[in-house]
Amino acid sequence: MKQSQLFTKTRKEAPADENSKNAELLIRAGYIYKELAGAYVFLPLGLRVLNNIADIIREEMDAIGGQEVQSTALQRKELWQKTGRWDDAVVDNWFKTKLKNGSELALAFTHEEPMTDLMKSFISSYKDLPAYPYDIRTIFRNEERAKSGILRGREFFWKALYSFSKDKEQHDEFYEKIKQAYLNIYERVGIGDKTFVTFASGGTFSKYSHEFQTICDAGEDTIFLSQEKKIAINKEVFNDEVLNDLSLNRGELSEFRAVEVGNIFSLGERFSEPLELRYMDETGTQKNVFMGSYGIGISRLLGVVVETLSDDKGIVMPEEIAPFSVHILALGNNENLFREAENLYFDLKNAGIEVLFDDRDIPPAQKLQDADLVGIPYRVVVSEKASQNGGIEITHRKTGEKEYLDPSRLVSYLMEG
RNA sequence: CGGGGUGUGGUGUAACGGCUAACAUGCUUGUUUUGGGUACAAGUGACUCCGGGUUCGAAUCCCGGCUCCCCGACCA
After folding, report:
1. ipTM
2. Which of A117, A122, A257, A387 reaches 20 to 30 Å from A244, CA-CA?
3. Of A243, A275, A309, which closes a domain?
């Protein structure tokens, strides 16, 4: 894309009504726009990143048998009454509303009940199991206090997968697979080395659930981490019993602030029982389906990436999720060099590389500043100075590493990584 | 939901209860400059969050509401 066509602009100053690093940088760089506290518009740059993260998640979910659906944002009251979750005393951060005819309904905050009910139409035999529908969508939570920019919003973009298995064995096998899939996701979005499986409270049907916590000062959670064993314990369940269960001792753990970037739960029959999701097993006996749920906040992931990877010049986008892979800057007012930059832009596009071409008629310094702020992984400068140094200049945003290249070699250079 | 703070051109800030609400930035036009937000000039742009009140006079003081930020509580 040509940058002159991009309707968003960068800003020199951060808005006064934001305190968090992630919101400040994302707003300054033109990735997001604040609509109200806890609700942000994802602008073209931000949306590209969201879509890239969602695509990674799709790949990882599909690889372990997930099948994507698009759920509804409107939810029926009756299902939640059956499981005892409709009452405001049980779930207090739920947006509820009414139809014109007066019947109550709600805006989706999770989908255990609707998804369980839906699967009743398709599951009746052990032959129908397991099944792993998942959903990528915006959900709503009436937070009493939204905060930390994009990290805790009143609406946010997430993926939720629900597993339907015939028994605990079949469930456990999948649970381990998705745990690994989650780790793959964090690795691919660029925060793998800071993200750890964390033991957290499990609820009714299992002793523990697993959270994925990313070390980050902006986080709301406190975890005790064994760097060596790559295991952490959430402070809320930190006691001698857990330490014993995990064969850890206090001495090998250190305390960190962290952000929860995912949570996987064994639900057992918590929802299949009240909603009567049953199947006939091999012996002709009716049984409840064994369930699990697995959530990962996509917009929050973007926030965590910015919180943990940016530097004093701006955002540093990891390659797999960056809005563009390459940022071409034409510096100076040399007509020939501008043409050369434009040709490079078309070459890269034709090679299937996502490229942003800064073709704007503004001073070089501004283009350089903007490139740092937006944080695209590779910056390619076409200028007289670069020509004198042997062609075009390519700089890695993350490391600052710089090299000069003959323009004809750029495509192959990028394809090889 | 408890506590603290905040609200002024698009953005960031200033202004003792007292002249036509100031500065920077942005934006427009012209000249200039062309590797780290270039320089100069001329323009543009505000019912000072909303509603009451005090006062000769309110951006400024008082009351109520809302907004946004922070701490805490909460967070399938």
Report:
1. 0.95
2. A257
3. A309
Check which CATH number belongs to the domain holding A80 and give it: 3.30.930.10
Q: Distance, angstroms, CA A271 to C1' B25?
A: 57
Q: Pick from A199, A107, A165, A188: which is nearest to A293 by CA? A: A165
Q: Residue A409 sits in a domain of what CATH number? A: 3.40.50.800
For the segment A149-167, what is each residue's pLDDT rounded down to a tens digit?
A: 999 999 999 999 999 999 9
Distance B55 C1' – A185 CA (angstroms)? 65
- Same domain for A38 and A166? yes
Residues A41 and A133 in one domain: yes
Rounded to whole angstroms, the distance from the CA of residue A17 to the C1' of nucleotide B18 is: 32
Q: Are A317 and A31 a contacting pair, CB within 8 Å?
A: no
Tokens 């879509």, located at residue:
A51
Which nucleotides of chain B are near protein (any atom < 7 Å from a CB)?
1-2, 8, 11-13, 25-27, 33-38, 67-76
Both ends of chain A: CA-CA distance in Å? 21
Distance A404 CA to B26 C1' (A): 35
Question: What is the total count of domains within chain A?
Answer: 2
Distance CA A130, CA A127 (A): 8
A109 in the same domain as A134 = yes
With beta carbons less than 8 A apart as the criterion, state whether A57 and A300 touch.
no
Residues A343 and A216 in one domain: no
Range of the domain at A226: 9-309
* Shortest CA to C1' contact from A388: nucleotide: B35
Q: Tell me the nt nearest to A262, Cα to C1'.
A: B76
pTM > 0.90: yes or no: yes
**Whether A340 and A258 share a structural domain:** no
Our CA dihedral for A198, A270, A69, A110, rounded to 10 degrees, sits at -70
pLDDT single digits (tens) A294-329: 999 999 999 999 999 999 999 999 999 999 999 999
